[in-house]
Write a sequence for this structure.
């Protein structure tokens, strides 16, 4: 539409140019007529105007028809198409904006999705932490292992030290006990000669049984009790009294018997507890008990006499000028002194077979020096085994010679004992007896 208006104006401009040349009236009329025939455009005042007055003029134009190129007919179509295109573009733009929004959304989601690994980051961190902890634990484990090895080695050293110390302490205590018992015995000897009547009278008037003051069979013997039999003794006033068999005939009497074998009526294959408390029949075969033996030998310095008789009627004896059995804590360790007698020193046979200073072993408690097994179990008895024996008076009672393991009553220095008989039979004993007596009474 705007284009059409432009062409109308451009055709008017030459008309105004011609209006400027009106002054020449003759020519003007001719020209007007000419022009009117050629182009019917007239310019005239609207009303009669005075000179010098500004009057409105009007211009009449003939109907105008302009021939435009054919291609101009396409303009409307093009315009329509342009409109369509514009709409399409707008639509596209709109959809594009939606696309963009979607894309932005997607990007947002993408960003969020990209944040996923960030969410996993703490997991990675915790993984690393776990690895660190694992390595720390491994370090601690190896440290612990080292510490354990160190503790084991220290433990070994400590055991050695404690063993050495224990031996020292034991020896120290033993020597002190020996000194004390010697002093007590000498005092006791003096008292028995000067104060015994007073003591007896005192106890009698107090109504206390007289036997409470008898430490052992020797005390009874000193009081004129010279018949073999069972007497109640109190070797330590802090401990209970107990019965013991007293031999009042052998070698000036006054012997407290701690073990006896004579007929095989009592089984000597016994436990630690049995040997601790004692077992058997005091009138026949028995073991007095390690606790009692300890108390008896603790209260006085004692000597030990062993009497043996074989089935051939041979009777021999062994005398040890010291005999002490330690307490249970020290595993009833044996202490023996110098030997004298006729049966031979079987308790201290050699450097390798020595029962002195050995712990007590029973079939259920191995304290012997035989590393591969229990001597008590092998030889069916409780005894102060080395590894294992040159003497064992608690062995099995055989009523005659026997074959096999040396598990009978055994005294290694007995004539023909160690070699055995040519036919493989082993010596057995008819009687065995172990008894003790205060040293100061033995000349
Ligand atoms: Ca052993």
């Amino acid at each position: 539409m705007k284009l059409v208006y432009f062409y109308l104006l451009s055709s008017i401009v030459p008309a105004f140019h011609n209006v400027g040349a009106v002054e020449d009236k003759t020519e003007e009329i001719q020209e007007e007529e000419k022009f009117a025939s050629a182009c019917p455009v007239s310019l005239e005042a609207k009303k009669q105007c005075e000179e010098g007055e500004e009057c409105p003029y009007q211009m009449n134009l003939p109907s105008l028809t302009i021939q435009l190129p054919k291609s101009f007919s396409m303009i409307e179509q093009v315009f329509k198409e342009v409109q369509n295109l514009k709409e399409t573009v707008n639509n596209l733009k709109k959809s594009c904006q939606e696309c963009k929004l979607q894309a932005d959304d997607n990007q947002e989601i993408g960003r969020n999705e990209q944040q996923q690994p960030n969410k996993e980051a703490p997991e990675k961190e915790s993984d690393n932490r776990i690895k660190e902890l694992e390595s720390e634990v491994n370090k601690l484990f190896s440290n612990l292992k080292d510490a354990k090895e160190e503790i084991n080695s220290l433990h070994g050293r400590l055991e050695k030290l404690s063993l050495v110390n224990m031996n020292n302490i034991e020896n120290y205590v033993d020597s002190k006990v020996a000194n004390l018992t010697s002093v007590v015995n000498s005092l006791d000897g003096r008292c028995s000669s000067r104060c015994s009547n007073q003591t007896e009278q005192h106890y009698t008037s107090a109504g206390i049984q007289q036997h409470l003051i008898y430490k052992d069979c020797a005390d009874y013997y000193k009081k004129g009790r010279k018949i073999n039999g069972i007497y109640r003794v109190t070797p330590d006033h802090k401990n209970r009294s107990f019965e013991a068999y007293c031999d009042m005939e052998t070698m000036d009497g006054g012997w407290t018997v701690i073990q006896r074998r004579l007929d095989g009526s009592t089984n000597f294959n016994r436990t630690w507890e049995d040997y601790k408390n004692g077992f058997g029949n005091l009138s026949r075969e028995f073991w007095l008990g390690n606790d009692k033996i300890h108390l008896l030998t603790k209260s006085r310095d004692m000597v030990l006499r062993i009497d043996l008789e074989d089935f051939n009627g041979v009777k021999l004896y062994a005398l040890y000028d010291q005999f002490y059995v330690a307490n249970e804590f020290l595993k009833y360790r044996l202490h023996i002194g110098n030997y004298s007698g006729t049966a031979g020193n079987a308790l201290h046979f050699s450097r390798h077979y020595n029962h002195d200073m050995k712990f007590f072993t029973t079939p259920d408690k191995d304290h012997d020096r035989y590393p591969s097994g229990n001597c008590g179990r092998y030889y069916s008895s409780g005894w102060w085994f080395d590894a294992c024996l040159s003497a064992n008076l608690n062995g099995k009672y055989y009523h005659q010679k026997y074959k096999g393991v040396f598990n009978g009553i055994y005294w290694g220095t007995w004539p023909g004992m160690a070699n055995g008989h040519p036919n493989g039979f082993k010596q057995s004993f008819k009687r065995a007896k172990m008894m003790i007596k205060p040293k100061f009474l033995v000349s």
Observations:
- The domain at 217-438 is CATH 3.90.215.10 (Gamma Fibrinogen; Chain A, domain 1).
